[in-house]
Amino acid sequence: MDEKMSSDFWQNHSLRYLEMAFRTDRQEIINNPDGYGKKTGDCGDTVEIFLVARDNLIEKASYYLNGCMNTAACANTIVQMTENKTIDQAWEITPEAVAGYLETLPKDHFHCAELTVGALYMALSNLLELRRAQWKKVYQAR
After folding, report:
1. pLDDT tens string 46-102
2. What is the pLDDT of residues 8-35, one digit of tens each?
3. Three-state SS sequence of 10-66
């Protein structure tokens, strides 16, 4: 990366985007989560979302990914937006909200926000399904 491109990268992104893109403390595989979702995008990126809930509150969320920096920024944002929220509040998270929070997600990478929100919705669906049929949790594979 030449000096001009390197300088532009740091100047062209918001502090929120940079924090979410480079943060790694929320990247964790949770064994036996209450909700799990995995989604692979057309770009080849794969995101897994793990949820731990008590009653109607999502106490912990984490992610694992094989993808680009934009997807990492979106996954971190999803985890931040989801933790300590009710299940109903988590369903209200949209790709537009993720992109808006990041402020400088490149428009040609909006699909990264759609991908991570899709994985979140799959995890929320899984959480509700496992509550209806708790025996399935024992057989759930990552």
Report:
1. 999 999 999 999 999 999 999 999 999 999 999 999 999 999 999 999 999 999 999
2. 877 889 999 999 999 999 999 999 999 9
3. HHCCCHHHHHHHHCCCCECCCCCCCEEEEEECCCCCEEEEEEEEECCEEEEEEEEEE
Strand 85-86 to 35-40 pairing = unpaired
Q: How far is CA 86 from the centre of its chain?
A: 16
End-to-end CA distance of the chain, in Å?
37
Rounded Cα gap, residues 116 and 71, in angstroms: 7
**What are the structural domains of the chain?**
3-139 (3.90.1010.10)
Name which of 48, 16, 57, 41 is nearest 112 in CA terms: 41
